[in-house]
Amino acid sequence: MVDEASFDSLTTPHIPTMVRIAAVLVGQAYAEDAVQEALLRAWQARETLRTSSAIRPWLLRITVNLCHDWQRGRFGLEGKMTEPLDVATNIARLASFANDPGSTNHAAFLDLRREIDRLPDEYRLIIVLRYYVGLDASEIGAALQLPSPTVRTRLRRGLDRLRQQLDKPFSVMEGTR
Amino acid sequence: MIFHTPDHASLPSAFEEFLIADGATWRDQLTINVTEIQKQFHEQRAHLQQEEIPSTIRLPSAHTHITRHRLIWGGIVALLTCLIAISFSTIPMHTPSLRSSPPPLPQEIIENPLAAIGSMSPQDAFTKSVTLLPCNGVAARTLSITWLAASFDYGVAYILADCTNLLKDPRSVSALLPFGKTLSGEWKIMRGSIIPQSPNSRMAPFPDHSDQSAVYGPAYNVTVPVWLSLPGNGYLGALMPADAQQYHDALAYWVSQQYIFITGIFAQAPVRPSCAQSMTINNYPGWICQQNGLAFVTLLLSGNKTFFFAGNAPRDQIIEDAAQAQAHLSELFPH
Fold this sequence. Notes:
Chain A is mainly α.
């Protein structure tokens, strides 16, 4: 049984990563709240953690699951009558971070983030977890409950797609969506 | 607009470096206050340890055998408890004036008050903490939430869900959900009612969560008062009488095949929404809004009380009915 002090010492090193995950999933404004709640969930479920060495992927998975729950609440319930089904109930939708306060002033970076926001969710999630949160493929796989090869495949395809998007004139892409 | 980065099309590694650099910039500029997060977490943990764990929190299933055993034993205990309760219960719990209702499916509404901690309005808290799966436990095709009236701590949400192809009957589900901050500071659905589509439909109040035991809030059948001239006929009405606990709120609605009218009162001053157009009724200041096919009048009464009247009839009809209802408040919501 993990006591309070042990739990705190085990979880503290991973909090920054949890915040980054939450920031890309639910937005910076909600990230710290989401992590507080993720820690609560982890505390409640601490008996299910078999070894302390597995705590990082376990915490990251809890954070991702919690953020998906929040997305379901935020985006699902804010859906209006006029929105189509795929928008109103899209639980995998990510928070847009193209306009985050942390954005660089460099126009190219802003364009890059905008185009990342436009990627299909299955690619976007993996790209932001890899390059913005800083997770490797095995950690992403653990967090998303996907095999590492699948993560690598999606990452490669996502990068290809992102490159294609960035090479196209913006107006053309707008017209094809 | 064409995006240009040096050689990114021809050199994947350079493109990846570009992503890595932007990721590093983003991480560097993201403010992370670990101490504050831990402080808040410790407070919430201490709070949790004094209370029952909310039923909406689902634990991760890393090693589900432990949870499964608990569920099995929990199920056996619950079954035995039910059997004992049934064998000893000889007096029906119905009050003649109350409509008995089947319990709603538990998965239709999921509340997670922890997610609403720090929310500054009922709308924000509701969005963060409540998940509605109104179509027999499935998310609606579309869902509209109209806040008929709200203060900083309390609001009345009218939910309209399109369940086409998800439910045979009814095809849409509407509900009236008073939502507010409890005395302990938690945001919760106070009580509520699924509104029937027609007189033949069921009326199933949501559980009253105030005592954590899923007891229904009372809902009385009421007819349309003679002084209230609603269009058409064939109305089914319900009254959720005044709650003496906190907001002293009372609600009533009348629904026909074509129309719905909802009125209510609560003991807090209203917050003016962005859609508000100022007006005065019976010398009380207020406003009217139109959203999602509904028009709703809100009035600030003496003693910082809020009165509202809403419906899907034309705006002028709503104003006229609001004036009538306000003039007959004591008759409408007797204490």
